[in-house]
Amino acid sequence: MTHQEHLLPLLVVEDDAAIRELLEEELNDAGYDTLGVPSAEEAIALLSHTSVAMMITDVRLPGMTGIQLLQQLRQSGSELGIIVITAFGTIDQAVEALKLGADDFLTKPLDLDAIREAVFRVLERQRLSLTQDDTELSHFHGIAGKSNVMQSLFHDASRLAKSDAPILILGESGTGKELLARAIHKESPRHDAPFVPVNCASIPADLMESEFFGHVKGAFTGANEARKGLFHSAQGGSLFLDEIGEMPINLQAKLLRALQEKTVRAVGSEREEPVDVRIIAATHRNLEKEIEQENFRSDLFYRLETFSLRIPPLRERGSDIELLVFTLIDKLAEAQGKQIEQIEPEALNSLLNYTYPGNVRELENAIMRAVTLSEEGLLQHQDLPERLREQSNQDSSSEITPTLSGEVLPSTSQVPAPAPTRWPSLEEVEKRYIRKVLEATGGNKRRTAEVLGIARRTLYRRLEDDSEQT
Question: What is the pTM (predicted TM-score) of this model?
């Protein structure tokens, strides 16, 4: 087994000091950090405030046994990798341990090679499991994001999708609020019913009530026939109210009533009709300030805000920019029947370093322009919008480039641009970027993970995969 560093230590629970020290020494030599305690009670106390990669515990311990320790951890929902050490001739205890959720067992006298192999197997199973989880979270119904903030958003959105409560999506313009609303609808039990989007800012105020609730024949001048509204169009599904902050305050009262009573009244009608619609609203405005200025009803806000989701701006999403750049190039090139095989390094630097005040929408528009203008499979710097090129030129006059976390990294613009290369895979670009950040932080993996916006365990897996291939 190759010598590898692990970001989280291994916990050894063994009351025999000589055996505990032997295990720790062997694991240290194999490249692992270790913590050692003599009892199950001390192990539980340590685990209450310290994260570990996995645990090795003897069955026979003073006080609580290793089996009882295993049972208590599993009952608490812990998925920590656990290897149980049992004396020779008590295999029945090993079988019991496996039934209770142990990952492996070792018998005394201990074989040091077997210890290393067992630890590797358990950690590898965990790595593969976490890799699968990362894959599932990196895309949520078409929304790409592997940063911690986006994975947290995907998790919360998936949970809220299962309920039927109204949802309020907050975020700057261009962050993808409608995409998230569609994703929530697809994840919900209503996914087979209609998803009806409407931009409240695009409907004239005097027509909005009719658009939402419908009207009867003769309700107003020009109402030559009865018409159903958006609530009826979304029956059984989801009605997405984009820019709800633009809705006139008189209509907000009627929307609140529809939410509470689950009925609507068409303009000109005296009859309430039942509707089964889930409301997903979105805004880039600060609704609390709108309430202070009496532009938004506080009761409607509190009704919606109970289950709110905030989409972070692109500048807060760390290494997601790389993922989005390559995802969008492939998507937009395919839409135009093109195949982008090469990219100028200067173009890639500009795309990765721009601040994107217009968020994902601005990034997508920039790439669409570059793909449209590209020739012979080459995406060139000159094909990017002028504002991206200008910022790149300004950055080139500096010797350092600050990251969002405050870490200072060497400016990529100081490196002479080589000739265009073959189109790199996302995995290759990710590895190069991780190595660059790791070098800039002096090999500090904790700071590297913070700069990249990923979990330390995720960083370890990336480094482990890289070392296996080199």
Answer: 0.57
